[in-house]
Amino acid sequence: MIRRLFIAGCMAAVACMTVAPQARTAGAGETPAWAVEAPEKKQERMAWWTHDRFGMFIHWGIYAMPARHEWVKRNEKIADEDYQKYFERFDPDLYNPRQWAAQARAAGMKYVVVTTKHHDGFCLWDSDVTDYKSTNTPCGKDLIAPLVEAFRAEGIRIGFYYSLIDWHHPDFPIDRMHPAWTNDPEAVKAANAGRSMERYRSYMKAQLTELLTRFGAIDELFLDFSYPGENGKGHQEWRSEELLRLIRSLQPQVIVDNRLDLDHTDWGWDFVTPEQFMPREWPTVRGRRVPWETCQTFSGSWGYHRDEYSWKSVRQLVVMLVETVSKGGNLLLNAGPTARGVFDGRAVERLEGLARWMRFHDRSIYGCTEAPQEFAAPQNCLLTYNAEKKRLYIHVLEWPFKSLHLPGYEGRFKYAQLLNDASEIKYSTNTTPGSHTTENSAAGDVILDLPVNCPDVEVPVIELFLE
Ligand code: GLC
């Protein structure tokens, strides 16, 4: 029976691989009745998110103890029995989510997305449907409830990350991502005997129901992730449509990522999620620009990683934030707390650096997006734009000597200032042809008269008040 189920599963996976392209194209236009939403309604639902632009990702779990990547169980093919030593000793005695929330707020982060369960299956809340949760470790506490309360108290919106993948659940069929995967099909078949995707799906539904009914309004849901095809899992295995329907019925306003493998539809996701790279331009789906949120790390790993040395500088992180907004996106920047329950010194330094910059420059981030085409970016600059306030923000990555040429900007703005200290920047359009002390600019150009010394901030910003 089990064997038959497994074979049927394999056949379904193969069938899915071969018929998927047609099914997908056909499906793109058909919206199930429960998922119908007018574009303006969706825009309204996502308005806070599009405005706020900057969030904190938190990856936390018992993998903070090995401290060498949240995928350690799979990377090192650790058996359940051996991974148990972390569960038995997890005791984040310094956990104080109010401190995290204050650090996030100071850094200008307007929402948080926290891992309620990662791929290792460990749950940070007091779920009714598993024993594999923080309350059963020496920590003895639900870690999500106080976090939600603390971040809300700082005016920060709440997002939950929930791993679709589960390397601990006894019903989750072993696939090519699983720590117990082997290239011996017979061994996999034997290990999968008795596992039931049907039961695992009920487990996911029960957990998502808990997460979406016990903690008040949830603003973002980050489901992670799909890898359809042979020995993988995608929308057919998750029954993604059913999951999304459940989610929408419980929290109609929640903003959902695109990792349910429903990219072939226009209704199965709210935003796309480029991870650990910077898109060249505003991402599109079927030719249309779509809402996007890039998730990035301080150092490469999401979970706390003690021995990782590829930490980005504060300046790199500021530029990353600016560049994301300059292409119309959101940045979800990750911090992986230690198993004591704090952000380590390197993370604190980055957060403080961001806080220093955001204190004076958040106006070029919140409510901003890509600048209209008519404004070309000056040399070595990134632009953001606030349509409502009619301001253009020029982020100067390399401080030029005295003159910044704004190509074709003549008549387009009426005042310019440095954002960090609101000091006026004078400008001119007329140069004297043939003068040996000024450069002749092209017709329509404006030359900003910059101070010789670069302002003492990570990335200086010039604010233009548009006509
Ligand atoms: C990936 C990884 C995961 C991380 C996530 C963040 O899907 O599997 O470890 O949580 O990206 O987006």
Written account of the structure:
The protein is an alpha/beta fold and 467 residues long. The chain folds into two domains: 2-17 and 38-364, Glycosidases (TIM Barrel, Alpha-Beta Barrel); 381-466, Golgi alpha-mannosidase II (Immunoglobulin-like, Sandwich). Helix content is 30%, strand content 16%. It has helices at 2-27, 39-45, 47-52, 72-75, 80-87, 97-106, 144-153, 185-192, 197-213, 235-238, 240-250, 314-326, 345-361; strands at residues 54-58, 111-117, 157-163, 220-224, 255-256, 284-285, 288-289, 293-296, 330-335, 381-386, 391-396, 403-406, 413-418, 426-428, 446-449, 461-466. The chain has a seven-stranded parallel β-sheet. Strands 10-11-16-13 form a four-stranded antiparallel β-sheet. Helix 6 packs parallel to helix 7, helix 9 runs parallel beside helix 11 and helix 12 (314-326) packs across helix 13. Mean pLDDT is 93; it is low at 1-27. The chain binds alpha-D-glucopyranose.
Report Rg: 25 Å
Question: Order of strands across the widest beta sheet?
Answer: 5-4-3-2-1-9-8
Q: Compute the average pLDDT.
A: 93
- The tally of structural domains comes to 2
Percent of sequence in beta strands:
15-25%
CATH class of the largest domain: Alpha Beta
